[in-house]
C-alpha cells in the first residue's frame, strides 16, 4: 500500500496561484523526490498530500481512495519536518511512543515497536535521554522513529536534513535509503539539493514555480533533460 494520485490539484493563496493544476502518480513503494528552487511550491504540494493545506481544486487519492476531504490524521501518512518538533521534556522513548499513546495502542505493542524502530535507527542506547542531550542527527532519527511506529502507508519528508552539517547529511541520507529498502514503503522526499535528489530517488519530480518541468529517474533526467531548466538544475550537459 502507498500509491498516491494527484488529480489536477491546484493551490491558490488569495489571488496568487502557487500550484497551477497538476497531475502526478506515485507508485506503491517508490522513493520520489520533489526537487526545485526555494519557493517553487515543494512544501505546499507535500502539505496538500498530507492534508495540511486545503486544495483550491482537484483531488488526492491514496491507495485508490479519495482522501481530499479526509483529515491529516486519517490519511495514514507520516510527515518528518526539518525542525524536529520533539517534545523536549519527554525521553526519546516517550517521544517515539507519543503517536501510539494517542492512538490507544497497548503498552506491550508500543514497547515492541519502539525497540524495533530504535534498532533500525541506532537509537537503542539513547531511549532514556531527552532531546536536549542528543546530537542533531540523533534528534532527526527520533523524529523518523516517531514516524515509523505509526506504520504509515507513506512517509513525507520535508527537507529533513537541511539543519544538519554536510558530513552528517551524507550518513543520514544513507540511513533513510536503507530504511526505505527495509520497509519498502512509499517515501516522498522534498529537497532543494540536486545531489540529494540524484542519489536518493527512484523518481524525481522537478518543480519550477509550481509547475512540474519533468518526472523521471535520475538517469533519464541526466541523459534526457526535457529543457534547459532541468538540465541546468540537475547539472547535466545539454
Ligand atoms: P518551497 O517549499 O519550494 O520552498 P513553498 O511551498 O514553501 O516553497 O512556497 C511556495 C510559494 O507559496 C512561495 O511563494 C511562498 O511564499 C508561498 N506560500 C507558502 N505558504 C503560504 C501561505 N500560507 N500564505 C501565502 N503564501 C504562501
Ligand atoms: Mg519548503
Automatic annotation (TrEMBL):
Keywords of this entry: ATP-binding, Hydrolase, Nucleotide-binding, Transport
UniProt key word Nucleotide-binding: yes
Example of a GO cellular component annotation carried by this entry: ATP-binding cassette (ABC) transporter complex, substrate-binding subunit-containing
The protein's Enzyme Commission number: 3.6.3.19
GO molecular function annotation: ABC-type maltose transporter activity; ATP binding; ATP hydrolysis activity
Source superkingdom: Bacteria
Family membership: Belongs to the ABC transporter superfamily.
Protein's UniProt name: Maltose/maltodextrin import ATP-binding protein MalK
Source species of the chain: Octadecabacter temperatus
Source organism phylogeny: Bacteria, Pseudomonadati, Pseudomonadota, Alphaproteobacteria, Rhodobacterales
Gene name for this UniProt entry: malK
